[in-house]
């Protein structure tokens, strides 16, 4: 069964995702790695008691696995009604505190400063498929909403392939807002002893964008890079250097 879109633009279409999850069924689909591959960086930047919003959750098992190790305050949203129905049915009895809502992440229905973490696994990459005006406008709305629903001190934790145009857009947007920008390499599946069969060969990164309280007139920008998953962050002087 071919689930790939006819063009990359379809990744931003609700109709494509409805069809995708109808054809895919209830089998989990993991973009950019499993919980075991990502837990090192996730646990570094998320605390179990924090309120977490997962945008573009799909039918990934990531939220379920986070819940099972103690992250109980998780809200998941997706534009696909099909997948939200599937996920509600899958988790109603086993994970009663976790919620799944059909919602457009560019027009979220939450009050300001509702969450301490916004978690995005592959969603920004799926939306930012090119640099056309309509695409960039949609991404601007998405990132503005992420900023709105996060508390000061909160983090936008985005798992990405960090292609040049995505890195440029994400770093540019949040640095202009005065947030701290960190790019963190995630150990690949080839590095995991537990993974008998690598499933994703491209390098994966995490963007950790930390929301600072805006300071009028301040031009402070902070850029950091962790070239190894457990390495110390290195401060860089510019977005271009990052």
UniProtKB/TrEMBL annotation:
<comment type="similarity">
    <text>Belongs to the methyltransferase superfamily.</text>
</comment>
<dbReference type="GO" id="GO:0008168">
    <property type="term" value="F:methyltransferase activity"/>
</dbReference>
<dbReference type="InterPro" id="IPR029063">
    <property type="entry name" value="SAM-dependent_MTases_sf"/>
</dbReference>
<keyword id="KW-0007">Acetylation</keyword>
<keyword id="KW-0489">Methyltransferase</keyword>
<dbReference type="Pfam" id="PF13649">
    <property type="entry name" value="Methyltransf_25"/>
</dbReference>
<keyword id="KW-0511">Multifunctional enzyme</keyword>
<dbReference type="InterPro" id="IPR051419">
    <property type="entry name" value="Lys/N-term_MeTrsfase_sf"/>
</dbReference>
<dbReference type="InterPro" id="IPR041698">
    <property type="entry name" value="Methyltransf_25"/>
</dbReference>
<dbReference type="GO" id="GO:0032259">
    <property type="term" value="P:methylation"/>
</dbReference>
<feature type="domain" description="Methyltransferase">
    <location>
        <begin position="52"/>
        <end position="147"/>
    </location>
</feature>
<protein>
    <recommendedName>
        <fullName>eEF1A lysine and N-terminal methyltransferase</fullName>
    </recommendedName>
</protein>
<keyword id="KW-0808">Transferase</keyword>
